Amino acid sequence: MISRTSEGLAGPKARWAFLALLAAACGAADEPTAELDGAELADTSEQLIGTPIDTQGPTTTSTAIGLALEFENGAGPVVRVRRGQRFFIEQLDLRGVIQSTIDREVDGLASEGPLRNLDWRGVELADEDFGGMQNPDGTFTRRRFYTGARWMERTSVMTVQQLDSRGRPTALPWLLNLGSSRQRGLLDTFFIRRTRAIQWTYDCPSTSDCSGASLFEEEGLVEVRHSPWNLQAHKFASATTQLELRWTELPGARWVVPVEQVVSPPYDYNLRVELGVETPPSGYFSPGDQVPVTLSFRDGSGARLHPEGSLPSYADVVFGPNPAGLQYYRAFFDATTTYYRRKHRERMTAIQLIGPAQDIQAVRTVAPIEQFLVPSETLTLGLPERDGMYAEAQLVPPAHVLFGGAFFPESGAWEMPLSDTVTFNIPDNAPSGSYLITLKTRRTYLGQDIPHSSTLEIQVGQAERTEPALATSGCNDCHSQAFAGDLGRVLHGNANRGACNGCHVPLGFELEGPVYVRTHFIHSRSERFGRSTKNCSSCHTTRESTQRVSKSACMSCHQSYPESHVAAFGPITNMYVGGGPESFDSCTSSCHQSHPGSNL
Questions:
Q1: Is 1 inside a domain boundary?
Q2: Same domain membership, residue 293 and residue 220
Q3: Structure confidence by residue, pLDDT tens digits, 406-428
Q4: CA 80 to each of CA 75, 215, 284, 298, 382: distance values in angstroms, whole numbers, following the listed order
Q5: Sign of CA dihedral 55, 60, 63, 67
Q6: Is 368 found in the same domain as 255?
Q7: Is residue 569 part of a domain?
Q8: Do the strands 174-179 and 156-163 form a parallel or antiparallel pair, or are they unpaired?
Q9: Which listed site, 24, 41, 131, 583, has its alpha carbon 20 to 30 Å from 543?
């Protein structure tokens, strides 16, 4: 197996040669070859692997753009791209799904459906949980997550080939080395590699009993994202009308999606967001002040993606043509689950005010679903006297519009016009210091699917800046440009780790909101982390930062605890935090504060 420290394999030629040897295994060239234009064959970029990808500036057809592809049950939606655009593959989602009326766990995937020829030996249950909200009919949804199948574990290769209307290749293929589940290697095409199977049970009578259920769904998933291989960028040939995916794990299978090339599209690729705030003459705001923030979404060339003064309604974005590609929350229609299922496709737009910077910490107060249904300009999620800092946030569209339209469709909330201004309210007891206003969003446009965050710093009560004192470090050792995993590119595209905790609070319908819960959970489940999860000093910088013990802190890493803990704290009922809202209460007085092997 190739390790991250292997010598002599990091060069572009070595990587390219390795995948070229594997290309034949996918059968990428077993059909008649069309006449290929020499320029189209020789259009590989001269950039070095790991070169930063610009997702904010202007582009031309010669700019290497990250392409996002989706395949489901052998096919997929139309891929619309700018005519003749150069792309490398940045994101690929592959899904096979079947329905059942009996509980087979995920065994049905091995006997029917498009993934039946995968090697399912070794598949096992890894985690189990229920959704955070009751179904409209009063039932509950159980989610079971499976890993360990041989096809999930071993190294495999995909090819994506451009074809003309007669099925003939029109350009060089993209060669994608998925790597192994055990370790990230220098030859891997993607930073994130997640393979799993999920069983959904949609009609459980309670959150502890699924007897009598008959609505089951089984799905197999491949999610790969963020490629340093901007070397492997190819133009869409003029004759290309479809893309064909082949995979060494499914010999002989062809997954095909149609392609539409758009001449002179109305907008450029990429995204930047301007946050407009009028600072008082003193240079700082005072406690009790309001802070109106104007949002301006623009493409890479600076063109507005919405009229000044307004934003498109939820219905316009989700159900309309949405020509600009702005994105709002979509998990009502495509369920997401932290780590296990398509969180990148949630596509939420949200904005927060958090501070003061020197007090930034995790918010552990649960925000109930009712707070998201009451009309309000913003959501107050953290209070200085209760949580040690102030946190205020709002979704776009506002939470009561977003969730109100889902729960009460007759209200017409999703058709409501939206303002491009959000007004925050600094509390009367706000401590002085620097406060961060951060917006996260996403844009999908003509084959590109990119996250983006913008942060603006304001001063409250004083002109002097203050900075957050973060309790963790070393993230960039793995989240580096060389592996395309830098924090400015993954997740929300936010490299400022101090600008997270205002939105990431525990929600009544999604208790795993806090960053520490998600970080623990993701890194403890991923074998590609490359460090010991028992060694807290891999991330934590001080012993003090590990001393506030709670069920959420422990169970976001551990999957079980001894019977003595069950007697004291109850059985585990949530795979992320262990239990309910009480999971965020400190048990420091009754729990151990030393962590064997932590190195702290």
A1: no
A2: no
A3: 999 999 999 999 999 999 999 99
A4: 15, 35, 46, 20, 42
A5: positive
A6: no
A7: yes
A8: antiparallel
A9: 583
* Of the residues 230, 262, 294, the one at which a domain ends: 262
How many angstroms separate the CA atoms of 486 and 153, rounded? 24
In a domain, 267, yes or no: no
Number of domains in the chain: 3
Look at residue 222 and tell me whether its pLDDT is greater than 60. yes
Residue whose token pair is 């989610």: 143
Residue 198 shares a structural domain with residue 105: yes
Containing H/E element for 404? helix 399-407
- Taking only the tens place, the pLDDT of each residue in 441-464 is 999 999 999 999 999 999 999 999
Among residues 99, 56, 88, 76, the alpha carbon closest in space to that of 199 is found at 99
Q: Are 396 and 256 in contact (CB under 8 A)?
A: no
For 350-364, what is the mean pLDDT?
A: 96
Strand pairing of 192-204 and 140-147? antiparallel
- Domain end, chosen from 211, 242, 262, is at 262
Could you please report the per-residue DSSP string of 468-517?
---SB--GGGTS-GGGT--TTTSTTT---TTS-TTT---BTTBTT-SHHH
Tell me: do 297 and 399 sit in the same domain.
Answer: yes
Quick count: other Cβ atoms within 10 Å of Cβ 35? 7
Number of neighbours of residue 509 by Cβ within 10 angstroms: 15
Phi, psi of 405 (to 5 degrees): -65, -30
* Distance, CA of 358 to CA of 55 (rounded, Å): 31
Task: Extract long-range pairs of 129-137: CB within 8 Å, 24+ residues apart.
Answer: 129/574, 129/575, 129/576, 130/204, 130/207, 131/335, 132/507, 132/508, 132/509, 132/510, 132/511, 133/369, 133/509, 135/202, 135/203, 137/203
Tell me phi and psi for residue 337, to 5 degrees. -145, 125
Q: Does this model's pTM top 0.85? A: yes
Q: Does one domain contain both 349 and 377?
A: yes
Cα three-residue angle 253-258-259, rounded to 5 degrees: 130
Where do the H-state alpha helices sit in 250-383? 314-318
| CATH code for the domain of 312 | 2.60.40.1930
CB burial string 129-163: b at 16+ within 10 A, e below: bbbeeeeeeebbbbbbbbbbbebbbebbbbbbbbb
Alpha helical stretches, state H, 101-174:
150-153
Q: Residues 21, 146: one domain?
A: yes
pLDDT tens column, 482-530: 777 888 888 888 888 888 988 999 999 999 999 999 989 888 888 787 7
How distant, in Å, are the alpha carbons of 73, 98, 153, 179 from that of 112?
A: 11, 8, 21, 26
| 515 shares a domain with 495 | no
Least Cα distance to 351 among 406, 432, 421 occurs for 421
> From the centroid of its chain, how far is CA 81?
22
DSSP 31: S
Range of the domain at 408: 272-473+486-499
Same domain, 320 and 418: yes
Instruction: Specify the length of the chain in residues.
Output: 600
Phi–psi pair at 514, nearest 5 degrees = -55, 145
Sheet of 272-276, strand order? 272-276, 290-298, 421-425
Task: Enter the tokens of residue 493.
Answer: 């595209």
> Domain for residue 481, yes or no?
no
Supply 23's token pair.
Answer: 């290309």
Longest CA span, the chain: 74
